[in-house]
Structure prediction request, 567 residues.
Amino acid sequence: MANSIERPLDLLNNSKGKEVLVHLKGDKQFVGTLLAFDIHINLVMDNVKQMEDGEIKKSLGLTFLRGDTIIYISPASTALK
Amino acid sequence: MANSIERPLDLLNNSKGKEVLVHLKGDKQFVGTLLAFDIHINLVMDNVKQMEDGEIKKSLGLTFLRGDTIIYISPASTALK
Amino acid sequence: MANSIERPLDLLNNSKGKEVLVHLKGDKQFVGTLLAFDIHINLVMDNVKQMEDGEIKKSLGLTFLRGDTIIYISPASTALK
Amino acid sequence: MANSIERPLDLLNNSKGKEVLVHLKGDKQFVGTLLAFDIHINLVMDNVKQMEDGEIKKSLGLTFLRGDTIIYISPASTALK
Amino acid sequence: MANSIERPLDLLNNSKGKEVLVHLKGDKQFVGTLLAFDIHINLVMDNVKQMEDGEIKKSLGLTFLRGDTIIYISPASTALK
Amino acid sequence: MANSIERPLDLLNNSKGKEVLVHLKGDKQFVGTLLAFDIHINLVMDNVKQMEDGEIKKSLGLTFLRGDTIIYISPASTALK
Amino acid sequence: MANSIERPLDLLNNSKGKEVLVHLKGDKQFVGTLLAFDIHINLVMDNVKQMEDGEIKKSLGLTFLRGDTIIYISPASTALK
Prediction:
């Protein structure tokens, strides 16, 4: 998957339909299936769960996440294994 | 609903007239019926209630919410069930 | 009033000449009559009163409020009843 | 004065040459005569005094205030009476 | 000097070659001779001294100050007298 | 490597395929192989490890890092030796 | 050096190849040789050392510094003498 990445958004494109970890400012963490993104890094994810210390804190289902609160997005985090 | 989402704003469009949970920076939460949004994610919601620990803290009725304070918007949160 | 809202700014337009509650970052609250707004959500209000715990803290009269500090604007808040 | 306001900047235009109260983020307060402003709400004021609890804390004289730190500007505040 | 000011940047232009007080977010204060500025309010000052409680805390000499951290610039502050 | 740098992004271009240290606001540190970047300094890195006091805190693998949270990027930090 | 400065970026241009002190928000300080900068005040510096209370805290070598975290840049600070 790393081979096909020439621009940062390529990783998000490759991750559509897959589970990703999203870490926000203020240390909020969400895990869910990436459905859509735009150039502001606004995301829509499905089956979203807010995580805290490795536990599910809240189930949000389908969710719109505003890009400007995001620190990182990882489709390969150990948090997903 | 997830099938028809190609861009993040599609989720907001699909949620018009429906109840959504809006979570703001500073951990304010609002529940209400989504009436309108724009590309800045400014929202107008009706029958808005500010929530705290699952309880209604304040009734706001018709309300304009500024987009840049929003973290996420979920039409499917367990908080709505 | 909710029926005529297609874009978020429609609510502000409908609220001109009426009393609104404006809630700012840092939890400042102002009540006053909305006279004017622009696309940055800069507002001018008349007969402005800064509220704290439901009490008038300060009378400001005619006031220009900068849009980027606003969280929400409600013409229908229970705080106005 | 309120009658002639159609856009927010009209209030600033009407206030040129008059004393205004400017309240900044971090709760700094300045009182002075408004000389000039631009669309970023950058201001130049004359005879500026920084206020604290209704007392003059510091005299600044002629001062340039950067717009992005401003919360509100009131030409009619009770603080000016 | 106040008479010739029609736009906020006129004050900065009039202050070139003169000593000014610059107050930053986080309450840092710098005194020095204004050499140059741009529309972002980026400044270059010479003989810059960082002040704290009216005392020189550090001598910086020639310094570039980024505009977005500035709260106010006063060529007439009592701090300069 | 320093000789070929005329613009800041040249350093990021020269660092593609190499290990870099990325330091974020809030003092988060990440080490990984730089794969891609854009003009917003959004990054994609591979084999990412979040570091704390010189220890690996979390393995993230392939990760998208949003540019606006970055303070510095160093391909030559002693933290990498 | 002060004589040739008409715009703020002239100081950065004059400082290429020379040692500068860079002070960031959050009071981080870096000393190093300025190699490159752009209009966002993104910098590349060589032989970078992070300073704390006048002591070297960390050696970073060649480093990209993001412009929006910078408060000031001084090629003439007493901290460099």
In short: The first strand of chain D starts at residue 19 and ends at 24. Chain D has a mean pLDDT of 93.
